[in-house]
Amino acid sequence: MLPSAGIIKILCESLQKFPVKALVVDPVMVSTSGDSLSDPSTLTYYRDELFAMADIVTPNVKEASKLLGGVSLHTIADMRDAAESIYKFGPRYVLVKGGDMPDSSEAIDVFYDGKEFVELRGHRIKTRNTHGTGCTLASSIAAELAKGSSMLNAVQVAKNFVESALHHSKDLVIGNGPQGPFDHLFRLRCPPYNIGSQQRFNPDSLFLYAVTDSRMNKRWGHSIEDAVKAAIEGGATIVQLREKDIESRAFLEAAKACMDICKSSGVPLLINDRVDIALACNADGVHVGQSDISAREVRKLLGPGKIIGVSCKTPAQAEQAWRDGADYLGCGGVFPTTTKANNPTLGFEGLKAVCLASKLPVVAIGGINATNAGSVMELGLPNLKGVAVVSALFDRECVSTETRNLRSILTSVRCLA
Ligand SMILES: Cc1ncc(COP(=O)(O)OP(=O)(O)O)c(N)n1
Ligand SMILES: Cc1ncsc1CCOP(=O)(O)O
Ligand SMILES: [Mg+2]
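Above: the input record for the complex with TZP. Below: its predicted structure, written as tokens.
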């Protein structure tokens, strides 16, 4: 908070003398509650001195209006115009935050890089505990930039963090004023972070991802529960129920039983495609593909604490999945597969392209078995966390033996790395 022109001047001089790696300027002029927090003479100094040095400027709509001489901002189009005008003051990027826009079911921020606009959409969390959201967002952006993130990435991560913190603090009752504080340390306060007793997603759990298939189980006379039990016994680190031809009622019963099995072993259980089943059995998450409900919609339905995986075959799909709030990407078919009809084979080149384009953890899928799993992990891509396997585990008589064998192959590659 820079309350006077003199202080902004001193700050600018200091920044010239001691340049910083990235400068995030949150022009704290009007609080969410509407209070003016700086003297009117600061306006010129913000616009003419500080903004030109900034990597990003992050006004809320009231501040954007003030910076632009009191223009009214009521629509996304107004926010875009404001971002364009503020960009002319010289920062590299502008983020106009729409959290205070009335009558909107979403919290939409407009990001502008001088050429293109990106609308960042989040859930509007109904709570009075919003004190300090702007400061938190700006600080989170700075922290992400310090970690080496790109600007859009940093903004998205920061926005996700604020949304999660708001969600986890929404029912706190502290203090009397119109606004309450929110809890930045919510991840420590409720280690489950997830709803219920589940653990927050650990990308290392993608190491050996067992994906079930009801036809294969039928062929070998295995129930879904037995197959899942055997996969976990053999060392599967995460399980997905991919049951394409089972009736909903039977699926839910099996999913509930599998939840009990997975919970007692500390292995996350995801449901393929079916958000309804995931909600009904309180699964750890959902995996969706490009023709399923989007990750953004799934996130709205499941909330911030659940795991969402998205199948991606291209860098563009990976970028979209990240924007939509996915936790990991499933990339494949790396090799030809007969488990999923008409699934294009990407090969190592396709897998590499997706991994390199994203910061999200990736699990490779498609035709992976004991003979080729090692070669996938030997690619040594830092965000490639593991392999997802269907037939090489479940189209076999002894699921636990196959899983154990694959796990030991993956472990030996990891030990050599
Ligand atoms: C881990 C993982 N990766 C990819 C997929 C494929 O999902 P999708 O493209 O939606 O195809 P279906 O599995 O629904 O046929 C997956 N299931 N799991
Ligand atoms: C679901 C899916 N998505 C891409 S490939 C594939 C099938 C993987 O099955 P398998 O491991 O038997 O090749
Ligand atoms: Mg699907």
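Notes for the reader.
Residues 191-198 have pLDDT under 50 and may be disordered.
The pocket of magnesium ion (ligand 3) is lined by residues 272-273, 288-289, 292 (CB under 6 Å).
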